[in-house]
Specification:
Layout (H helix, E strand, L loop, with lengths): L4 E5 L5 H10 L3 E5 L3 H9 L3 E2 L3 H5 L4 E4 L4 H9 L13 E4 L5 H12 L4 E4 L2 E2 L1 H7 L2 E6 L2 H14 E8 L3 H29 L4 H8 L7 H11 L9 H17 L5 H15 L11 H8 L11
Parallel strand pairs: 1-2, 1-4, 2-3, 4-5, 5-6, 8-9
Antiparallel strand pairs: 7-8
Length: 302
């Protein structure tokens, strides 16, 4: 196995387990994060701490980003002491965040002028996928750069698909997030009706998950909703951000996205309650408020 020197920036819910997988695979890691506790944790696992994004990229063969939003990626890559000032020509920067495709294309051009490869490679699969290395990764950028980076991506993901030029990975991820959010909406409404009607919710999830109404959201987050477990595998505020990007793209393309607009408003309502840091399944709380009914095993029929 070729040992790569990797800079890793962004050690949140997803970034931390991804970085640990790279270390476990034998690669050398230099990590940067705004808060220090995750950096200290990774250092205990064998990583080196970097003092800035540029320092994380310095002497690295690859620099991986896993950050919350477009402005974060822009600042980390192009800002003061940014990756662009540390990345050497011939190295590759891989953004695995979910951000605006237009921003990715802008960063791609800036880095290409310096001889640095750039891929947008957002992921899906949640924290479980990050821990187990089973993420699905959708990649945009130059194909030859993708092929060079593919062995590193294979440490992190199981299904890795090259989608096309710069921005294509992000555009695919936004399509994914629309499907995720609306599948979750359907699961929440189904469980709300089942609960109000007094059905056995565990059996409802079991039988629907075996047929045409099945979805990852129902099978995986349905039990969490029933058990009132709103710990985040993926934060509601991050999906809200992704849906905002989807609506911005829809505006640019003159494309109506009525379902996306509706579920985005429900997530905004959840955030307004101060609960945006909960898992996406917590959006059921907004529907429960509208229905004046809480999904629970003890509910009787209407």
């Amino acid at each position: 196995m070729h040992v790569a020197r990797i800079g890793f920036i962004g050690l949140g819910l997803m970034g931390r387990p991804m970085a640990k997988r790279l270390l476990a695979a034998g690669h050398e890691l230099k990590v940067f994060n705004r808060s220090k506790a995750p950096v200290e944790e990774l250092v205990r696992h064998g990583a080196e701490a970097a003092g800035s994004p540029g320092e994380a990229a310095d002497k690295s063969d690859y620099t991986i980003l896993m950050l919350p939003d477009s402005k974060d990626v822009q600042g980390v890559v192009l800002g003061e002491k940014g990756v662009i000032y540390g990345a050497k020509p011939g190295s590759i920067v891989i953004d695995m965040s979910t951000i605006s495709p237009a921003v990715e294309r802008e960063i791609y051009k800036s880095l290409k002028q310096r001889g640095v490869g750039y891929l947008d490679a957002p992921v899906t699969g949640g924290t479980i996928g990050a821990e187990q290395g089973t993420l699905a990764i959708m990649v945009g950028g130059d194909y030859e750069v993708f092929k060079e980076a593919e062995p590193i991506l294979r440490v992190l993901g199981q299904r890795i698909v090259y989608m096309g030029p710069s921005g294509s990975g992000q555009m695919t991820k936004i399509c994914n997030q629309i499907s995720v959010a609306l599948s979750l909406f359907g699961a929440c409404e189904a469980l709300l009706l089942a609960s109000k009607a007094g059905l056995d919710l565990d059996k409802v999830i079991e039988v629907i998950s075996s047929g045409a109404g099945s979805s990852w959201q129902l099978a995986n987050l349905g039990p969490a909703i029933v058990n009132r477990d709103f710990r985040p595998g993926f934060k509601a505020e991050h999906l809200m951000k992704d849906l905002r990007i989807a609506l911005e793209i829809g505006q640019e393309l003159n494309l109506p996205l009525p379902g996306t607009a509706l579920i985005h408003q429900l997530f905004k309502s959840l955030a307004a309650r101060g609960e945006g840091a909960l898992g996406t399944q917590a959006v059921v709380k907004v529907l429960e408020d509208l229905a004046r009914h809480t999904v629970s095993r003890s509910s009787g029929g209407a």
